[in-house]
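Render this sequence as a predicted structure.
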Amino acid sequence: MDLGKITNKASNLEYKSGAEFMTDLKLMRDNCQLFCEGRFPTLPPLAHNLVSVADSLIKKWGKEIRACEDISGGVPSEKEQLGTKDEEKVEGKSSTTELPSRPIVTILRLENRLPEYIVDISRYAWAVNRTWCCGERFRMLFRNPQGQPGEYYGGVTAGSLPFDEHGMLPWEALRVTWDEDDGSDDNRINPWEAELPRGGNRA
């Protein structure tokens, strides 16, 4: 389960209750915790925060949501609709069930920055159009588990992966050597995340 599937289900009105929506959201959070904690440490806290915000909003708008659930649950099945139509023909009466037309708009703003999987087009264009050379000094901002700016770490470039068949740079295409080597294999970064000193100093 991911946010894309949840968005599609919500857009198509497939959720029958707030509890069903929260179940999918919590499953997405658990998947994020399981698969992203090591490689993308900022994502699990965001997922936890999203579940917390959604839960508080569902509690806040519980009365309106339950009203929609009651109306949705009262929509007759196909067989019941056919039976109702026959009765209407006999009795000459008509009845309709209408869902409320007033939408509920909720904006979830996790933090005031772009997530890692959304790339600023100007920075991407700069990274794509630039010729990367070995030995160039750079620095990169790392964030803490809450997604807030942490500290900069410096290093030198050690080469770049080639463009793919679509003319785009692969994810984490820039090979680097860190000034403070902690012994990990984390020696590849996204080119658009590297910040070069003014003048492009070489190491």
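Summary. The chain has a mean pLDDT of 75. The chain has two domains: 3-72, 121-195.
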